[in-house]
From TrEMBL:
InterPro entries: Class-IV_PLP-Dep_Aminotrnsfr, P-loop_NTPase. It comes from the Bacteria. GO terms for molecular function: transaminase activity. It holds the Pfam family Sulfotransfer_5. Signal peptide: none annotated. GO terms for biological process: branched-chain amino acid biosynthetic process. Belongs to the class-IV pyridoxal-phosphate-dependent aminotransferase family. This is Branched chain amino acid aminotransferase. Keywords: Amino-acid biosynthesis, Aminotransferase, Branched-chain amino acid biosynthesis, Transferase. It comes from Seohaeicola zhoushanensis.
Amino acid sequence: MRIAMWSGPRNLSTAMMYSFGNRADCAVVDEPFYACYLARTGLEHPMRAEVMAAQSDDPETVVQSLIGPVPGGRAHFYQKHMCHHMVDGVPRDWMGAMRNVFLIRHPTRVIASYTEKHDALTLEGIGFVQQAQMFDEVAAAGGDPLVIDSHDIRANPEAMLRRLCEALGLEWDAGMLRWPSGGHPQDGAWAPHWYGAVHRSTGFAGAEGALPELAGAAAELAEAAMPFYRRLEAVKL
C-alpha cells in the first residue's frame, strides 16, 4: 500500500511520519516535492540551500520515486506531503495510485505554531485552500479520500490510529504509538530548523489546550482558512 498523507505545515505531520516509520513493514519519505516547490516559487524558506542540494527539483523524477519500487522492499510506503507544494508544473495524476489521506488542523493552531518558526505567512503558504481542492479532486476521481484531525490524534492516539488503519485496510501495529527520540533517518534536510520538538519526543504529545489567541493579520488569515478547514472537518474519521 502507498499512503499519501496530505497536510499543511505545523500539523503533526512529522510525528505521523515517525509513527508509520516505526512499523517494520513501512518505508517513509519526507516532503519529496519540497525542492520542486522552492524551485518554482523562488521562495526564501529557512535552509533553502540545504533543501535544494538534498532533493531533486524535477517533478517527474520525484513522481517516479513515489510510484516505483518501495524503498527497502517494504510492504507499505508512507509519503508525507505538503499540499502547498503542489504548485503549477507539479503533476497530480500519480495520486490515483495512492491511498490519499488528508491530515487537518485548526487554522488558529497552525498559524500560532508557524509564526514561531517563519513569519512570512500567506493563505496559499499554509495549504488549506489546496487541501480542500485536492480532496475534491481525489473524491471526484473515485479515490475514496480519508480525513483525520491532528487534534483528535493527540487526544487519543491509539483510538484514532486504529480507526485510520481500519479505514485503510491496514493491520494495526502498536509500534505506531512510540518511536525512538532523536529523529528518523528519512528526515528532510530542513529538520534542524523545524523538527526540534518532535526530535525530543518518543510519542504523540497529549491533548491540546484551548485555542490560542490571534490578532491582526494572523487572525484575519485564520478566518480566511476556516471555511476550507470546516469542509474537511465535516467528513473526518
